[in-house]
Every structure is written in structure tokens, then in C-alpha cells.
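S.,

Sequence below, as promised.
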Amino acid sequence: MTTTIAAELGRMVWIKDFGAVCDGSTDDTAAIQNAWNYAASVNLDVWLGGVGPKCKISSLTMPAPIVIGLGSDFGAARTSMLHGPASNQVMLVSTVTGTTCAITITAASYGTNSSLAGKFSSFGVTQVAQNQAGNGICLNNITKATFEDVSISYFATGFNANDTSLLNIEKSWFEHSLVQISGQQVSNTGPNAWNIKNNHFSSSGLYSIRLTAPNLVNIEGNDFESDGTPSGTSGITIYVPSVSASFPSVGINIVRNYFEGNTGTEIWITPQASSLSVHNVVGNIFARTLTNLSNGVVLANALGSQTNVNVGGNSFLDTTGIPGTFKWLQVTNSATFNYTFDCSQQNNTNTPAEIDSHCSGARIAGGTVKSDVNGTYIGLN
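The prediction came back faster than expected:
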């Protein structure tokens, strides 16, 4: 089936028809919100392009989703989505500060009306004063949402999701926020079945990704550069302070990402003390480390019974100048549990012995890590 640009635009409501100017100084909040409200009432999306490159707003709120499925919990719903020509061609410039959100996407209730049939794409959101204040895009009680080619910059928290499941963030750009992506449990569930793939993160103040009580999360193919507090070592690029205990199998997969020039700690995971827990940190590249990078991968107290942690096939490049106390892998544990730990097949083009010594030097109660940088399986004595 063929179509035309005109036909596709005919399926969307144009913000210009509602008075949007997008010259960077005129307040376009009412025009865009009115367009969004109308679009939702006629089951259409909103077109942000074709006006000007900067639409000044305070805050926008997604109209309530309309059930299009059977109406049961987690049934399909439809609301109007925002679309632009590209994330670098139209920017929503928000004046929000404090805890206010530039764009709020909220379901009527958890479950019913919360599964959104569509995606938001190809526009940007930034804070007007570029002073890392307010929130960019906020999701509340959403069980399915997709964002593609969206740029978010200069907020306290760029992307803030509460009680959100089945979230897909792809091919997007995150810059200069204190926290780029934050997901947490408030009253229902933490991040569940998230996919964060092929995005770019740079100049995070504290965290690029911070997920509290998640499960079944895939972080893959992303680029993390110059993240963490520039003048200190408090930043953590990917921070998982706790994982969910709601399921017998918990998976945090951090695979095939690229890390360069970050400070603080690259990856921090605190596994849940529950059975059949599996986590993977595999195939990542860590390049051009700085003297104030304090840790590579940290697995913190406490690893649970029958926990399987695979840290394999990573490459550590250009590690000159890092402090003598630095460890690419640090495992801390306050009790003895029955788990396996694999950090084989690592690669360090600078000093291979460094990876070997840090793997074997990781302190694990109940056994010593056996390591071999040539690819031999690593287990416990």
C-alpha cells in the first residue's frame, strides 16, 4: 500500500492551525495543548513541524487515553501522540522548574487505559534556562509506551517514569541533565520489561540511567560519553540500587554498550537476595578512562541464593592514568550464597594482567574468583 506525505499529514492535527508560532519567544503552550486535546477527541496525532524550530511552552499534559480494546486491565488504549520532522528540527523549550514536568503522560488508572497504542517521535524537549531544573517527559502508571528519536536536555531529570512497564526508548538523545533517565516504583511496580536501546547519553550530572526496583530490563547498544560529575567522582553511569523481588527470575541485561570518558562508576548493580536471579554485563566497550574514574563494574551487597552473574566478553581500552586503587570489577558481599560468577573472555589492550588481577582480587565470601583473561571459564574455588 502506497501513501503520500500529504496523506500522512492529513492523519494529524497541525499545531499551526491552533495558533502556534514557534519563534522561540511567543508562548505556544495553549495552542499546542488545544491542538493535542482536539487531536485526541478525533483519534489523530499531533504534528509539531512546519512552523518554527523552537516552541516555547510551560507544561503540556497528554489527554486521557481512550480504551480501544476489551477494556480489561492492560487492554489497548489510544491517545494522541506528538510527532515532529526530526529531534534536531523542532524543540519544545520549557520554562518548568522544581518538580514540574514539561510533558506529562498519565494513565487514568494503572492497568485500564494505560497501554498506549502508538509512539512519540522526532522532536526535542529542553529547559529554557539550561540550568538543569524541572523534569522533561514524565510517565505515570503507563504499561506500554514507545519513544523514538526524541532529544531531552538540561533538566534535573530528563525522562522520569513512575510505575511504568513495557517501555521502549530507542534512537534518542540525552544531554546535560542531572539524571537522564529515571525509573522507580511508587505504588504499583518498578521498571518492568524496559528496553533502552541505541541511544546517546552525554554530560550527565549524576546518572545516565537510574532504575529502582526494576526487573527484565535490557540496556543495549547505547553510547555513554562524558557522564558523571565533571569535578568529582560521585557520578554513576548506569545505577541499579535495588532490583525487584516480585518475580522469581530477575534480569538486568547491560550488553554491547560503549562507555568513554565518564567519571565515578560505570555500572553499579545491587542484586536482590532472591532465588534464580540472572544478570548480564556482556560485550561492552570501556574506552579512554579518566583519572577520577573510581570503579568499572560494581556488584554490591548482597548477591542472593542461586544468583547467576555473567560479566564476560567486555573490552577495557586505554586505561593509562587510572588510580592504583581502581578495579574494573568489584564484588562486595556480606554473606555466603550459592551463586556462579563468570568474568571470562575480557580484553584489555593496555595491561591484560590488570584485568586478571582485579577479577581474582574481587572479594566474595565463600570462595575466590578464578580468572583467566585467555577465555577460561571462571568459577568459585
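The longest helix spans residues 29-41.

Coffee later?
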